Amino acid sequence: MRFVIVTGMSGSGKRTAMKMLEDIGFYCVDNLPVGLVDKFAELASLPGSELTKVALGLDARSVGAIEQLPVMLDKLNSSGYQVEVIFLEASDQTIIKRYKETRRVHPMAADGRIEDGVTKEREALSDIRGRATYVFDTSTLLTRELKEKLDEIFASGDSFGNFRINVLSFGYKHGIPADADLVFDVRFLPNPYYIDELRTKTGLDQEVRDYVMSFEDAGIFLDKLEDMLTFLIPKYIQEGKYNLVIGIGCTGGKHRSVTLAKGIYDRLKALENVNVRLIHRDVKAQGK
Asked: Where are the alpha helices (DSSP H) in 28-108?
């Protein structure tokens, strides 16, 4: 049975995510008391049960302290359940704006101030966020984009045991990806932007790749990064993590980061039981 817990900040889109999971075949239960999670898991996994995919929505509305969710997660894992945790979040400003637009009361704002409720909830959920399998920041994420992410993870038909890696190139001038687990800065390498014939090209072009990889430090970087990741990945899998986002950043996200992201992607593809995807976030952005 595939067991998913959907949690995160109030106002971050958890209900929307639950509806999307339901659309792809999950049996969804929202706002279940934390103390009943293990009982539900036990019933859902009884012999003869037709449930193969289950998603539970747990947040500040749930009966029982949400701070107990990490304890419950440990209990489930020790009982043999392989639990995936989706954590949805958004910036304070985004959440406050959403609550003001809907005129709803934040579940942890006892005195009516949304700001205080957001701060209190973020502190209460800090532990479970750090242990989440997937973290999605919906501050600027379109509903369609969230659906694409969930479909990729839960409706692609890939084996449950696969460890997913997204190698993501980006430009620091456009911001560090909010969902990155590991971030590596490759601005120590010479910038092809300052080479006239390479300026308008990207790391998708062979000429740029050849230029970047002509520097010995580029190869050394890939060797050391590969060595570290081959050490870390089995440790992450052992701890129950199923998804890893590796950010490779340069100034504009067009030349060096694209080249080295492709380089580490090619090396990681050789690993067993690992599903690797290459994403170039800013390759079409303007500037260096």
From this structure: 37-44, 69-78, 92-102
Digit-coded pLDDT (tens) for 86-114: 999 999 999 888 888 877 777 777 667 78
- Tell me the backbone φ, ψ of residue 85, rounded to 5 degrees: -115, 120
pTM for the model: 0.56
Could you give the CA distance from residue 150 to residue 20 in angstroms, rounded to a whole number? Answer: 8
Reported as a single tens digit per residue, the pLDDT across 135-175 is 999 998 888 888 888 888 887 654 434 578 999 999 999 99
Please list, in sequence order, all residues whose beta carbon lies within 8 angstroms of the beta carbon of residue 196, skipping any fewer than 6 positions away: none
- 38 close to 75: Cβ distance less than 8 angstroms: yes
Topology given in CATH for the domain delimited by 2-154 = Rossmann fold (3.40.50)
Residues of the chain with CATH 3.40.50.300: 2-154
Q: Give the separation between CA 149 and CA 230, rounded to whole angstroms.
A: 25
Facing residues of 249 across strands?
170, 185
